[in-house]
Give the backbone structure.
Amino acid sequence: MANCLVWFRNDLRTHDHEPLRIATEHAGSGGNTFALYCFDPRQFGRSRFGFDRTGPHRTRFLIESVADLRDQLRRLGGELIVRHGKPEETIEQLIQELSIDSVHYHREPGTEEYDIEQAVELACQRGRVRTVHRWAGTLHLPEDLPFEIAQVPEIFTHYRKSIEKSSSHRDPLAAPDSIHCRLPECCVVGDLPGATELGVEPPKFDERSHRDYRGGQTAGMERLQEYLWDRDRLRVYKQTRNGMLAVDDSSKFSPWLANGSLSPRTIAAEVSRYERERVANESTYWLIFELMWRDYFHFIAAKHGRHLFQIGGLQQTQLPWLRDVERMDAWKQGRTGYPLVDANMQELAATGFMSNRGRQNVGSFLTKNLGIDWRMGAEWFESLLIDYDVASNYGNWNYVAGVGNDARGFRFFNITKQARDYDPDGDYVRHWLPVLANIPSDRIHEPWKLSREDQARYGVQIGREYPTPIVDLFVSVGAIK
Ligand SMILES: Cc1cc2nc3c(=O)[nH]c(=O)nc-3n(C[C@H](O)[C@H](O)[C@H](O)COP(=O)(O)OP(=O)(O)OC[C@H]3O[C@@H](n4cnc5c(N)ncnc54)[C@H](O)[C@@H]3O)c2cc1C
């Protein structure tokens, strides 16, 4: 009989949650399993370059996710204590208030996350309380890898091949059958804050959004059901995943994966079932392949620690990065004069989402064409992305900027070619930049080439209603080698 406290972080679910399982077993029928979520004020402050650390879309999504977690726990007989404060301070208080015997949590990649864990460990030591932690969020667990974290290969293909040869992932754990939790009357459960109380302006819904992502395990599971089974889109994932416009071009699992309302092992188990019951093909394999990229960035973050966030990146490459605020603003606001970049940046600001193809292009443009410090881009993404995940974001930015794990050396995207390849009819650009809507498909990606007569014919004045390019694509690319 014991009183256990489960500290929820980016693992906002009751399924496939080992600390929750261990805590409920440990507490037994005579003890209690309490659950806690802290809205940490450090997550709602300003970043190094002055951006909001958590913008409106992710704030809304997070509040919804915590609300859903509370519902799920209540259904099992439990309760979620909610606080607006630092976990280390809150846990220290709760240890006394609830006579806690052990604290259970998932460990996470990222140095700030690690520092917070250390502060929680200290608080527990002071309270003479045992902690039980497990690794969170990846398909494969560190103990199932064929190498130590310090030996994770620097090249993804090497990592993937070793894993495919010698490692398998575990099945997801079911949620506990029930949770015993009797909160003493003196303990306030705590209301969920609104965005404003967290210092964030509530997001406005943009009519151009195709989907209003709803946070939480319930919505995450519904999306899994919808994408695999109801719409049967997994069978063509490999062919459609680079699309930018339609919701079902790719899985859109990332927002739920990022805050842990959906577990990658649950997705993998459903993919296996789909392979047995419908079809096993290149596409079903490729979704798991992408989840392995995600795992890889998590392990690389754990391996490299603070280097992931430093200007020289994982390779500690020193390059003459710029901090050009004017050009940075043009990029942020989608006013660079390159429609593919601008449409993607406007989608990000309006919805908190951008496709992988879009992210690679805008990242390449910021770093290789504008020569801007890649960390400014990474922080802007951190602020706006609904699916922000520290390891995936900073790992991908390292990669895009050429300071991370790219075996292919210095690469940049030819934005206009990418636009023609991935938006051949211009529908994506037209959707997000209605000012260009009347330009024919074969000319929409290079509007600066339109003559005055053509501009009049298509109803747009380049340089006034839509900007001329802020740099030449090919001249600018040498700036940062
Ligand atoms: C500069 C840059 C920044 C990024 N920042 C993030 C981030 O903060 N959070 C995030 O989840 N993804 C990030 N990504 C990766 C990728 O763009 C998104 O995971 C993907 O677009 C999400 O859409 P989806 O769920 O439909 O992906 P799908 O194509 O359906 O892929 C399925 C899942 O695989 C994982 N995945 C796919 N590609 C990648 C990748 N390159 N790296 C890591 N995981 C991947 C995601 O969890 C995704 O949900 C970033 C990519 C770039 C180039």
Remarks:
- Strands lie at 3-8, 32-38, 80-83, 102-107, 130-135.
- The chain has a mean pLDDT of 96.
- The two ends are 63 Å apart (CA to CA).
